[in-house]
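Lab manual, section 2.4: Encoding a predicted structure.

Procedure: take the sequence of the chain (178 residues), apply the prediction step described in section 2.3, and record the output as structure tokens. A sample record is shown.
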Amino acid sequence: MPADVVADFLNEYRRRIGEPISRHHGIVDKFVGDGMMAIFGVPEPHADDARNAVLAGLELVSVIDKWRDERLAEGLPPVEIGIGIHYGDVIAGALGDEHRLEYTVVGDAVNAAARIEGLTADLGTPLLVSADAMAAAPGLEQDLRLAAPFTRLLRGRSRPIHLYRLAAAPPPTGECRP
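Recorded output:
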């Protein structure tokens, strides 16, 4: 696509995906190309941060599904996303040097979420949620249509992680047993 078309596309994409994050009390930490990192519970943690993250993820899937249908009806290429949600401790603050500071979060939970997101394309599902995130959102599992959890080994980790996917998504292959 020409640069101006890419810029228009990215602006529309960012607008569409930013709204569900805000609606569920999250913050868009950063955009990198067509990728986005959202955080919940920063700077003030709340008991429902994990619940809000999962609900925002589900809404994002719905928003992008609708936009994909609109684009297809206009003869445009579809839009697909992958969302990885994880819950854990992070350090939040300004990182950088005297020339450039950036407020962000760092920690194993950030790395795990990024690696979980990376699995979505391999598994053909738009959303994966860690068991840690579901455990931090009591009762949410019963409210959602999620398939039974499965396990995967994430790059850089010695122990597998338990993950949930949408019930409508195809079952994963190559399940890892702890």
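Check your result against the sample. The radius of gyration is 17 Å.
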